[in-house]
């Protein structure tokens, strides 16, 4: 049995594959595979351990319908046509649970950095503009006692809410399809309607999956319903917000600031106007980028591969 791995992974993961008697090929070039290259490599292997910009869409899945398992080195699975994979009986696995704290830390970092215009002020030093001190200029916002609105209060959203409650005594409101009893009991979180979330959040943080329903959801109309001094945080998927509408909302003062770990498209171009805005902080999708988290993600991804090639149930399977 052979698995094709679309990125270089940790040696610990490769060792587990060798111990299971599984051969592997790693793509080590510092560029994404073309779609045709991915198909050709996948055809020569029994399993795919995937991370990258490619789409595992209907065309890919039908071209590679022989695959015994597709293991994603991620929690998100929006790049995979899960329904088509199920129709073709190709199990798809992901890596849930292990990156909740790391991603919440990134959201918290972006919230705090945005509130104090930290990235912009750092740039003034690089430009040699740290000169006369004006006590009324470049002021940030304090977070103590403010209201955090969580769009998608799952594991990551819960960790973000816990941090904000502990550090700043923030009130927690959230919008979900279902209630989160743990958050309501431990954090005194309150479930509200979407419009209430927009109207009452001093900081609105997004922690939902990218679906047909959430794609482009945060647009001009939605930003117009938020507080003019609100901060928008997105560490989920860039396509959940409309980037042109976000830039316009910031330029016109419809909302106050934004912190993004995800953009649309990715990678963001260097000339994007958001990068020069004082109250915007952007990171290059590093939410899970800690050594501990990435090691755990590799472990889960490899365990899904091994189970799939043995014909066993995946430890973490994505269901349609």
Summarize the structure in words.
The protein is α/β, with parallel strands linked by helices and 320 residues long. The chain folds into 2 domains: 2-96 and 290-309, 3-Layer(aba) Sandwich (Rossmann fold), CATH 3.40.50; 100-282, Rossmann fold (3-Layer(aba) Sandwich), CATH 3.40.50.720. Helices cover 36% and strands 14% of the residues. The protein is built from 12 helices and 12 strands. The protein has a 7-stranded parallel sheet with strand order 8-7-6-9-10-11-12, with helices on both faces. Strand 6 (147-151), helix 7 (155-168) and strand 7 form a beta-alpha-beta unit. Helix 5 (100-115) packs across helix 7 (155-168). The radius of gyration is 21 Å and the shape is globular. The two termini are 26 Å apart.
What labels would you give this structure?
about 325 residues; alpha/beta; Rossmann fold; seven-stranded parallel sheet; 12 strands; globular
Brief sketch in words of this structure:
By secondary structure, the protein is an alpha/beta fold. The protein has helices at residues 11-19, 35-43, 58-63, 82-87, 100-115, 118-126, 155-168, 181-186, 194-200, 220-223, 243-251, 291-309; strands at 2-5, 23-26, 47-50, 69-72, 92-93, 147-151, 171-175, 190-191, 203-206, 231-234, 257-260, 280-282. Helix 1 (11-19) runs parallel beside helix 12 and helix 5 crosses helix 7.
